[in-house]
Specification:
Blueprint lengths: L9 E2 L5 E2 L3 H7 L4 H9 L4 E2 H7 L5 H14 L2 E6 L5 E6 L1 H17 L4
Antiparallel strand pairs: 1-2, 3-5, 4-5
Helix pairs in contact: 2-5
Amino acid sequence: MADTTVDAPVCDVDGTCYCPLTGVIDTLGQKYAMQLVSIIGAHDSLRFVEIEEHLPTASTSPISKRLDEFAEAGLISRTQYNELPPRVEYSLTDDGYEVRTRLEPLLEWASTDE
C-alpha cells in the first residue's frame, strides 16, 4: 500500500513553496482527466471508441492526449493487439485505481446540490 503521509510543502530561500501535490493537480486538472479516470475505472478495459461514447461532446485530440499523459504517468495501461483491424484497449493500473478511489469523495461532494 502507498505511503499516505503528506510532506509539508518545501520552501526555497526566496519563499517559493513546492507542494507535493503539484504534479498530481497538474495531471488531473487537465480537460477530461477526472472523467477519464472514472470512465476507464468503471470498466475492466475500454477501446478508444468506447471511451469517446462516454464523452460525446469531447473531441478526439484532448482524449488522446490525456490517455498518452496517463500512460506516461503510469495511471493507465495501453494494450495493443496485433490483429486486423488493429485493437487497442485502455485500463487503469494499480496507481490509476488508487487515484480513482481517492477522487470518489471529491466527485460525490461536487455532485451535491448545496
